[in-house]
Amino acid sequence: MNICNGKLLKKNYLLYKQPKLLLLNRLLPYKKTGYFLLYFLFVISLAKAEDGYRLWLRYDLVNDNALLKQYRSSIQAININGNTSTVAALQKELNTGLQGLLGESISNISQPANNSIVAGTPATMKDIKAMVGADALNTCGSEGFIIKTVHFNNKNIIVIAGNTDVAVLYGGYHFLRLLQTHQHIQDLNITSVPKVKLRVLDHWDNLNRTVERGYAGISIFDWQTLPDYLDKHYTDYARANASIGINGSVLNNVNASALILTPAYLEKAAALANVFRPYGIKVYLSIKFSSPIETGGLKTADPLDKAVQEWWKKKADTIYQYIPDFGGFLVKANSEGQPGPQNYGRTHADGANMLADALTPHNGVVMWRAFVYSESDEDRFKQAYNEFKPLDGKFRSNVLVQVKNGPIDFQPREPFHPLFGAMPQTPLMLEFQLTQEYLGFATHLVFLSTLFKECLTADTYEKGAGSTVATIVDGSVENHALSGMAGVANIGNSINWTGHPFGQANWYAFGRLAWNHELNSAQIADEWIQQTFTNNPAFLDTVKTMMLLSHEILVDYMTPLGLHHIMGYGHHYGPAPWYDKGARADWNPVYFHRADAMGIGFNRTATGSNALAQYAPEVQAMYKDSNTCPDKYLLWFHHVSWNHKMHSGRTLWEELCYKYYTGADSVSWMQHAWNNMKGKIDEERFEHVKMLLAIQHKEAVWWRNACVLYFQTFSHQPIPEGYEQPEHLLAYYESLEFPFAPGH
Ligand code: BDP
Asked: Which of 19, 75, 175, 438 is 20 to 30 Å from the Cα of 334, by its Cα?
């Protein structure tokens, strides 16, 4: 199936033409109109099939006649020069995109003409500088683009310009987005430059195609048939990423197999890199720190050992022979059982620097993860900071320390990680999780843009007010040359890529925010809905509201008021706040919520673990007093009594019940809102989302009942009057087991 609708229709037609004639011949003798009607309905339904594969790159005919007329008159031809694979990709995308959107094919011309698009760089188009201004181009760097309507040599032209082919490709995708979102194009003057340099998807995909924490099928990377078979997914994945500015892909799980660096797999990775390259996407690999032992025959992986250093240097040289523009390594070391430099008494900096030195001659980078915690009496919240803060300034210049958005682990809500604001001399790469490991897997509709924004806009006060996480991460606070944002991918081979049709929005939002963290969630939702579903204003309004509220709703029915990590053990499916059998204290929900007869919550103030001290004084001031701490972080930082007075006037116990009940109830509201959308979009995706919302509702009620009943065993207070009583006793919820829950 082709992602572009223009082609899809044609292909389907050819594909079904033969059976259609056969069927027609069979039906003719009956000559019953009923059969014909049925048959035509069948053909129409095929032509309209919407399985989600096309993502936000659907390019369906613009259904606003006035706009269509405007578009058609301003876009009559395309002038793109150059013979690189990126130029070819851009040409193809514009041709297919415009053909779909405008319903007519657009000719390619070799000179700028009146009412044409001119796309190029100063190297490929001699007039480009004169059209947009050399100064403007100077602000674009190597990836930024300009889209401008100009009157040049008596011609009306839409210019898409950049300093490199890839920049122009980004501009081309942005232009198509303008049309898909029905923007006027007569007076364009857009300059867009990415704020963050490395915008990377991290795949937790294993070489056997299972995906750690993946809920959308198996891996799209079919290592078995690579390098010879190049699945269509690879190109469409690259297109989707390029369209939102993602420029890197880590192909394999952070819990890495050492085999990834063996020649057989490097050849496969190189084949993927070749497909991705025209789209500006670099390939990175997760490495296993013990690779020199496992595949190199050495006795040690000590980063200060000369033979080990030599092994990595040679390995890097080899990798670059396969992949000349290889991006670098992602490393999980001394975390959750992975080997690392500490096995040899060395530091994270020793380990990262050894790898960095091997990559330096080739301009590669190391993304060294700070997700570390070990069995210890220390609050898990504090451990990454304790290990990494003393290493600030000790890393080579091509190392980024990659930090999860929050201090624990991708919870529905976390305060920002205290390392942001604490390592001024080190570029910190922000890691978000798009796959919904702790957020209902791929069956809960939750738009993560608001979660991302909550973190990005949080003020660390590193250099006074305004040092937001976003400005730490984009390098502007400390003037770092390197900057990066990573998203743990939610992609699999499921037909719509992400399992839940709305999971696509999280991939989309991540890319858009990595490019420009100043975009707001409403804008992003707006763009995504229009491109993915429809421009119908009623649909747009309702669904945008659902999306914007969805994260808060999920927090309410799962982990309100600052509760965290109370999910099922191991697989993290469903509620299990009672669980206390985990091999380590900090793998148990009871460790995190600390409910007792007095109250609930983790005291992280000076009278408790004092994790709060890891933040700047201004941040501490916001959170340190349980009476002024925002409700949403209350139980992150305080153990408060069941009768604690909340800002609403309710007691903590009442508020907890209120949140759980409102959360579950809000999912019914989402169902209701969605049901009203029937007929506004295709039946296929409408029904899909409807069924998933039913699961979400069932599970939200399950979360509510299980948690309220369990916490009631400590509060000893009744569920407030007027609330529906849980369907089962606590013992029932505690007895549920899910040995085959996916993704672990
Ligand atoms: C946790 C996941 C685990 C990952 C780990 C990580 O449960 O599967 O390996 O994060 O980020 O959230 O390394």
From this structure: 438
